[in-house]
Write a structure and sequence with these properties.
binds zinc ion; RNA binding; zinc ion binding; alpha+beta; single chain; U1-CZ_Znf_C2H2; 94 residues
Length: 94
């Protein structure tokens, strides 16, 4: 979350994209600040959104896969479908 730059006396705050003085008082002061709290909240929100999007994608892929599997049981699949099958399978197994 935070990298310490040994000789500069500053520490990089990744959530806030700024350097602050590398001492406990400054770090504490920064982490208690509204800007930091907002940035942490924003980061968590975007992480959740990415996770939700990924989940949705997998769910849709699973659905397509189920449809293909169902079709497969009906008879031989076409070459184009087999290609889609492999692509979907890759998404699911990532
Ligand atoms: Zn911060």
């Amino acid at each position: 979350m935070s990298a310490v730059l040994g000789q500069s006396g500053y520490t990089w705050r990744d959530f806030c994209k700024i350097f602050i003085s590398n001492n406990p008082a400054s770090i504490r002061n920064h982490e208690l600040g509204q800007r930091h709290k907002d940035n942490v909240a924003n980061r968590l929100t975007s992480m959740r959104q990415v996770k939700a999007a990924k989940k949705k994608e997998q769910k849709e892929a699973t659905h397509v896969l189920e449809q293909i599997e169902a079709k497969r049981k009906e008879g031989p699949i076409f070459v184009g479908e087999e290609e889609v099958f492999h692509q979907v399978h890759q998404i699911i197994t990532i």
